[in-house]
Specification:
The protein has 267 residues and is of the alpha+beta class. It is built from 7 helices and 6 strands, in the order βαααααααβββββ. The strands form 2 sheets. A 4-stranded antiparallel β-sheet has the order 2-3-6-5, with no helix packed on it. Strands 1-4 form a two-stranded parallel sheet. Residues 1-24 and 206-229 have low confidence and may be disordered.
Length: 267
Amino acid sequence: MSMFKKVTIVLVIIMLFLLQAGIALAQPQDVEGHWAQEQILEWLNKGWAECDQDGMFRPNAKITRGEFMALTNRAFGFYDTTEVNFSDLAGDHRYAEEVAKAVAAGYISGFEDGTIRVDECISRMEVTVILARIAELPQSEASEKLDGFKDKEDIPDWSKGFTGAVVDMGLMDGYPDGTFKPQKDMTRAEAVVALHNAIVVLHAMNITDPGFLDIQPTIADSGKLQRIILFYGLGEDFTEGSVVFHLPLGITATAYQDSVLIKDSTG
């Protein structure tokens, strides 16, 4: 069964307990003016991406395989896990659960030697394979865009079909110098933009995917200090399936016929 055709739709609610409603989230200083600023800020606001302890996003830093899995799982709402047994992954590793989610979702399987290499950087060609699997794109080796890259011969045969499909769908692109740089390590900014493009394209294809239910909250009531109430109208078109809310401790959700009321249970 397609991972995007499950009956259950997972909607992640990130509850922000602010001293008063309307306070904007602090923006990291190192993304201002960056080419991926818009997507990065959107992902930070949605809780899909995170800054480091210094409040920096470090958009040009390389991203590890574990970090990329965490981004992907949060953005697409992959919460199911499965038992994994990789020789280089301890059960208490910070990304052990993210690996279990990625394997359960079917977009990653590890290497032939039984490793997952979660702390190694992920390359651009590896990302093309992941995106193609998530979007279930047919491989496209006969791609004009792929043939247009100066370094197309550097793309391994095993990933050419995936790369062609991803490039043709506009999920990733090359560099201004006409190269694709398949072996280059992915940056944090590039990872966010590639995943963002995948979500946008899937949504445009009318594929309902976990984590991207197009519902905008309406503030029904808000008080002082740490109390906020959100009202989600599902609409008359929502007639089948279910919505699963992942809520922090102290937050309750009450379901009605075509809406959900989310509030601080202490209010």
